[in-house]
Amino acid sequence: MNSTAPRKPLFITLEGLDGCGKSSQIDTVVAFCESANPLGVIVTREPGGTEIGERIRHILLDHALIEARSELSLVFAARVQHLKTVIEPALSLGKTVVCDRYADATYAYQGYGRGLPLALIDSFMQALEVRAPDLTLLFDVPIEVALARRSGRPADRIESESREFFARVHAGYLARAQAQPGRIAVVAADRSLTEVSRAVEAVLQSAHA
Ligand code: TMP
């Protein structure tokens, strides 16, 4: 292979507000990636993806009050375990990793949402050697749509946050997409599942071209 050719995206993350519909698109992403990568695809999520990570997820989503910096530290504790034992081993075998949420969620939720300094998150990223994904699909819906899609379902601790919190998270995601357009593709998700799937396939197609 020509060494100057762009690398195919192997580490793909899905992001967006709670209720954006990203989880409904995982099958579309996996089907595309399976056809593009004969070495296989793994699907995982954050917080979670490992036994320790799933236990931390439980703490994070439980209703007990957590200091913002404790929340941030727990997110990264789960992430390191996930990276070292699941994501990096799979990537080193040449597999595609599809991860439902990852580091952009930390900037959006703990940074923009909670108001923690973005530089603090940068420091965690560097100190813990957290790699960036190759490609991120940001499923974008207006906040009202996200809130309406979630209504009637029991809300976890983070989903119970205010509309203002989600407005900051939303703005944070869009700011990151604007700053890193080569990595983060914004997919308008306020459409039918089929239309969103087509948009997802178009992004994946151009990223694999
Ligand atoms: P999920 O319901 O999409 O699996 O996400 C669980 C929640 O975790 C969601 O409300 C966003 C939150 N979260 C953070 O606050 N920071 C993070 O770094 C990650 C990965 C998720």
Describe this structure in words.
With 209 residues, this protein is of the alpha/beta class. 52% of the residues lie in helices and 13% in strands. It is built from eight helices and five strands. It has a five-stranded parallel β-sheet with strand order 2-3-1-4-5, sandwiched between helices. The two termini are 14 Å apart. The protein binds thymidine-5'-phosphate. The site of thymidine-5'-phosphate (TMP) has 12 residues, from helix 4.
Task: List the keywords.
alpha/beta; 8 helices; 52% helix; globular; five-stranded parallel sheet; binds thymidine-5'-phosphate; 13% strand; 209 residues; 5 strands
Main sheet properties: 5 strands, parallel
Ligand inventory reads: thymidine-5'-phosphate
- Rg is 17 Å
Relative helix content:
40-55%
Number of contiguous helices: 8
**Gross geometry:** globular
What's the average pLDDT? Answer: 95
Low-confidence stretches: 1-5
SSE pattern, N- to C-terminal = EHEHHEHHEHHEH
Share of β-strand residues = 5-15%
Strand order of the largest sheet: 2-3-1-4-5
How many strand units?
5
Q: Short description, anyone?
A:
This protein has 209 residues and is of the alpha/beta class. It has helices at 26-36, 51-61, 68-92, 103-113, 118-127, 143-150, 163-179, 193-208; strands at residues 11-16, 41-45, 96-100, 135-140, 184-188.
List the helices and strands and how they pair.
Blueprint: E1 11-16, H1 26-36, E2 41-45, H2 51-61, H3 68-92, E3 96-100, H4 103-113, H5 118-127, E4 135-140, H6 143-150, H7 163-179, E5 184-188, H8 193-208
Parallel strand pairs: 1-3, 1-4, 2-3, 4-5
Helix pairs in contact: 1-8, 2-3, 4-7
